[in-house]
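Final report, Chapter 2: Outcomes

The project's central promise was a pipeline that accepts a single protein chain and returns its three-dimensional structure in a standardized token representation, suitable for archiving and comparison. That pipeline is now operational. To close this chapter, we reproduce one record exactly as it appears in the project archive, with the input sequence first and the structure output second.
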Amino acid sequence: MPLRFFSFHLMPYPALPPDYDGPAWVTCPNELFDPAIGHEVYNRYLDELIYAEELGFDGVCVNEHHQNAYGIMPSPNLMGSILARQTKRVKIAIVGNALPLYDPPTRVAEEFAMIDNISGGRLIAGFVVGGGPEYYSFSMNPAHARDRFAEAHEIIMRAWTEPGPFEYVGKHYKLRYVNTWPRPFQQPHPEVWIPGAGSLETMEFVAKHHYAYMGIPYFHISVFDRTFRMFREACEREGYEYDPLQAGWLEPIYVAETDEQARTEYESHFWYFVKRLLPGINISPPGYTSLRSIENILKGAGTFAINLTSWDEVVEGQYAIVGSPETVAEKLIESLGRLGTGNLLGLFQLGTLPGHLTRKSLELFANEVMPKLRKEFPEGARVLRGQSAVA
């Protein structure tokens, strides 16, 4: 299967007061959180993910962020465990756990293994370094981020694949007994995804371990073109040709009956997301990113969605794909062929987009867009096409 469809959910807070103009991250006052709204949206968002299975999606995705209104999901494992019990077929991608924030990281190994057992082997294990804002929220030295991530990753993978108990002694973690119960349902371990925003170290790490690289959205399409080309080259340096299922593109998508109707229904919710929820996400504390990766990331920094000023820019850069089923299918076929990614992670709820419009878009996508894409990229066919294939 060269192309898989996932419904990705950020679980944003949709009710920041109109007079609040501060960042949505780290210092956004928690008195702005209304538990009554939290009760409503948590359950609604879970229902939207469960509905994706009914519509024929291959998987669903959740992720982890802390102390922010952008995504009120500090524990995606809680959401993953609910989804494991309330779905029967879809893959459950937790994209991912921020490994440096866990001490000891065996907690990740345990909880992921539980979800894998409950679901009968449907977990996709996502590991992340964690966003820059998280290091302020946790008062953690960002210069240790990569080292802590590497040690935590080693501990988790050994806990899943080596007989215990064994001892682990590293720079940041010292564990007398590593003896994780339960073991994962999938052997030797679940599929592993690692998202990235252009860090060269992340691409190289993913390629080395034959994991899958997920491209973070909110940049101009040309940035993804370069990023996925660099990831393919990283795989080649490791001595193998990358599999399209080793790459995923996360993209906001909205489908309505016509192009005009889609923009009318969606645009205000998109701007709430960009102007109210994104500010603060790009905090990068000193020491968090290496010099070589900063140089690469800066090449695309000016195209980050927070700089958008017009809908024409949104359309031209494909910051969101919005339109009729025909328009959305056409743009996705072109973009997937350009990027060569075997996983499409659709962000179908964004900002303040209400439940009835989210469900309508999901239905139109599943019924009228997804079949065209499956036909365009049948099993055994190449996903990567055109100039990007040789760029």
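Archive annotation: The two ends are 25 Å apart (CA to CA).
This record, like all others produced under the grant, will remain available to the consortium after the project formally closes.
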